[in-house]
């Protein structure tokens, strides 16, 4: 039965429309304005996020900006773009992150296939504070990797708003990382982990993801910024939450950080289990998660945290600047983030700790 003409579409059907538009080529060069308008109603793609860490794209090839040594020449390819982040910490050098920008393929709405975009066109998908995939373009190779490794591809899409907030929150609490071993889970391009490594006196920062493509970009970004880390050891790691971690890292991390990792409910149990396996049993050890509620997704994750024998604290107002920005978006005083909704966009702070391990009972005879 067809829907009556003019009846409103559900959010679910509009989101399917976004996917349909990504896959279908258009025979006409004219854009479908009605379709674009309807999908914008539900799209959560951030135009600028919370804008907590200023950044700008670098116009030249990476080797032109950082020198021409063999080590740096091949770190950014013709399908990559480099973003320079200025951390709000005195005497800390800028960070340069390499992001993947896919070529336009047969599914792109501008009809081009197999070409590389010059910098002027890349600026369509890069604003001052975020790197976003080319609009209406999808890379089918990413889906092949996702299927092969049973992972999602969100780490390649952009630097998500929650990652920006996590990096800012960590920079605002540098003392908690002093002499600590730190792990970032599901890091994407690794902004938060790199910011911790460059700004704090952490002993070691391990930046991890389950997607091998993402881990390759993490390692590139570590190499590019190697001079910014001082005495802090920094390394990348491929870490699948549903696999048993190597014995040498079990319960070895003082601090675990993650942003927007609770969206997919099918990963909740394994995510809770990996936190329990890797977090130290010691006073002061904790996992710091920043995630929007997204319906009941965060609540379901917290249930898994409890079932795993961990405890948590949920904090809504954890930073005055982030909270003020949230209120301005919510009440319409700042219109730079279209379709801002608290449930989908505002990351809540979750602090996760171990229950105190039970002490063995010793009986005297």
Key structural traits:
365 residues; alpha/beta; seven-stranded mixed beta sheet; three-stranded antiparallel beta sheet; 10 strands; 16% strand; globular; disordered N terminus
Structure explained in plain terms:
With 365 residues, this protein is of the alpha/beta class. 31% of the residues lie in helices and 16% in strands. It is built from 13 helices and ten strands. It has helices spanning 11-23, 33-40, 62-66, 70-73, 119-122, 140-149, 161-171, 191-199, 212-224, 268-278, 297-307, 320-330, 342-345; strands spanning 54-57, 80-86, 95-100, 181-185, 204-209, 233-238, 255-259, 286-291, 310-315, 348-354. Strands 6-5-4-7-8-10-9 form a seven-stranded mixed β-sheet, with helices on both faces. The longest helix has 13 residues, at 11-23. The chain starts with 10 loop residues before the first helix and ends in an 11-residue tail after the last strand. Residues 1-5, 67-72 and 104-137 have low confidence and may be disordered.
> What is the chains' assembly state?
single chain
- Poorly predicted runs are 1-5, 67-72, 104-137
Secondary-structure element string: HHEHHEEHHHEHEHEEHEHEHHE
Q: N-to-C terminal Cα separation, in Å?
A: 80 Å
Strand order of the largest sheet: 6-5-4-7-8-10-9
Structural class: alpha/beta
Could you give a quick summary of the protein structure above?
This protein has 365 residues and is α/β, with parallel strands linked by helices. It has helices at residues 11-23, 33-40, 62-66, 70-73, 119-122, 140-149, 161-171, 191-199, 212-224, 268-278, 297-307, 320-330, 342-345, and strands spanning 54-57, 80-86, 95-100, 181-185, 204-209, 233-238, 255-259, 286-291, 310-315, 348-354. The strands form 2 sheets. Strands 6-5-4-7-8-10-9 form a 7-stranded mixed beta sheet, with helices on both faces.
């Amino acid at each position: 039965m067809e829907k009556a003409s003019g009846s409103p579409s559900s959010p679910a059907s509009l989101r399917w429309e976004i996917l349909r538009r990504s896959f279908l080529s258009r025979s006409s060069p004219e854009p479908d304005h009605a379709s674009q308008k309807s999908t914008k109603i539900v799209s959560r793609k951030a135009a600028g996020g919370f804008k907590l860490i200023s950044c700008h794209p670098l116009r030249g090839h990476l080797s032109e900006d950082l020198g021409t040594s063999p080590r740096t020449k091949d770190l950014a390819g013709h399908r990559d773009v480099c973003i320079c982040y200025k951390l709000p910490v005195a005497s800390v050098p800028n960070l340069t992150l390499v992001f993947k920008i896919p070529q336009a393929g047969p599914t792109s709405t501008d009809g081009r296939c197999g070409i590389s975009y010059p910098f002027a066109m890349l600026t369509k998908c890069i604003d001052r504070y975020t790197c976003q995939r080319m609009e209406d373009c999808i890379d089918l190779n990413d889906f092949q990797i996702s299927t092969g490794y049973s992972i999602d591809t969100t780490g390649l899409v952009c630097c998500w708003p929650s990652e920006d907030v996590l990096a800012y929150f960590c920079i605002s609490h540098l003392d908690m990382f002093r002499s600590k071993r730190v792990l970032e889970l599901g890091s994407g391009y690794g902004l938060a982990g790199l910011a911790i490594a460059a700004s704090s006196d952490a002993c070691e920062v391990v930046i991890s993801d389950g997607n091998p493509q993402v881990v390759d970009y993490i390692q590139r970004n570590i190499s590019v910024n190697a001079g910014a880390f001082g005495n802090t050891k920094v390394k990348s790691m491929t870490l699948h939450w549903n696999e048993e971690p190597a014995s040498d890292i079990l319960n070895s991390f003082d601090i675990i950080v993650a942003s927007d990792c609770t969206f997919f409910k099918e990963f909740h149990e394994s995510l809770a289990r990996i936190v329990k396996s890797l977090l130290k049993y010691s006073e002061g050890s904790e996992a710091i998660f920043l995630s929007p509620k997204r319906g009941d997704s965060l609540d379901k994750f917290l249930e898994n945290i409890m079932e795993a024998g961990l405890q948590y604290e949920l904090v809504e107002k954890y930073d005055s600047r982030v909270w003020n920005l949230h209120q301005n978006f919510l009440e319409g005083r700042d219109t730079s983030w279209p379709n801002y909704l608290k449930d989908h966009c505002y990351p809540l702070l979750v602090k996760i700790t171990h229950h105190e391990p039970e002490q063995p009972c010793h009986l005297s005879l």
